[in-house]
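Question thread 4412

I'm putting together a teaching handout and wanted feedback from people who do this every day. The idea is simple: show students a protein as raw sequence, then show them the structure tokens that encode its fold, then repeat with a second protein so they can compare. Below is the first pair exactly as I plan to print it.
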Amino acid sequence: MRNLKYKILLALFIISLISSFVLSIASQASTEFCDVNGDTGCSTVYNSQYSQIFGIKNCHIGVVVFFVLSILTYFQIRKPTRQKKEIINYSVIMGFVVAVYFLYLQQFVLLEYCRYCLIVDFSMVFSFGVVFWKWGK
């Protein structure tokens, strides 16, 4: 049961990794890839000034971050250590803050939504809840 927390986190990180990867593929092809039924929210969010940090697309950063977190969480399940636990916890806290910021931007600044971005953002919100869940207490 103690590994349940990390199994849930691993699933959420993999979901976020896949969503980030889809957005990365969309950047190589066309942002119309993620716009379904004429919904332009994805393109609006993807091409906004908030879609990159230091010239690197957020989705590319997401692929790297969620890949590393997935591997780290897998090894935490296999052989738990305090150091890996702390890295995961602090990463989730930082990810939660970034996710809330991106949700704010989509809701109040851009007034558009990207479904893949929402998957990543809500996965981080759920991850935050999992990290601070009082397991077994």
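The second pair follows. I'd like the answer to focus on this one:
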Amino acid sequence: MSDALISVRGATIKRQGRAILDHVDMAVHRREIVTLIGPNGAGKSTLVKAALGLERLDAGTVTRAAGLTIGYQPQKLSLDVTLPLSVRRFLTLTMRAPEAALRGALAEVGVPQLMDASVHHLSGGEWQRVMLARTILRRPDLLVLDEPTQNVDMTGAVEMYQIIARLRDSIGCGVLMVSHDLNVVMAATDRVYCLNGHICCSGHPAAVSRDAAFQRLFGPQAATLAVYEHHHDHHHKPDGSVCDHDHENDHVH
């Protein structure tokens, strides 16, 4: 589509004679949250890297909007544990940003107090939020998030997806995510691509959860999991501690 931030058409990648991606089509538009789901080895991360130009296609095309700015959060980021590294320094490893921008980004993901903390002492939830803060510093047109709730419990995952939705609205960006969180991600996305080397099905989450191809991949119980919505009367901080909803200052805004 001509108005897409990023458009992939007929993407095919072969490795050692095996098709990792087979004629895959995908597009992401501004203010849209798109999620790639599929079993391990389905090619999700490969598709994301191909869309970003980090993997070479054997066939097909990738089209990006002119002047597109991308914020990319990889699935894994290895840091030398012997290297002293504060959150402030981590945020500015590859770019300069004023203090106000750093503080603003951390506040947007709900961890303004972590500026001077060591990245090596963060909980799983705190680390994911700090990585997300780094991703949004340039106010990108497109956020690309590969497993943004990795090593985060279900409640933390729900809250992370709420943060991502708010960022989509505040920045006005498109979002492309890879996720395994079937039980919550379907309620947190506008469009789903179910991938297993090829696109098995795609569309609105409610429709995809009823699709036979989706249920064959994840089992008939997936239709129930996919419409899960989490409601509770308390709030979990990124470090896992609990506070009552009456404590407004502890909320993620």
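Top answer:
Good format. For the second protein you could add a caption like this: Residues 226-236, 245-253 have pLDDT under 50 and may be disordered. The CA atoms of residues 149 and 164 lie 11 Å apart.
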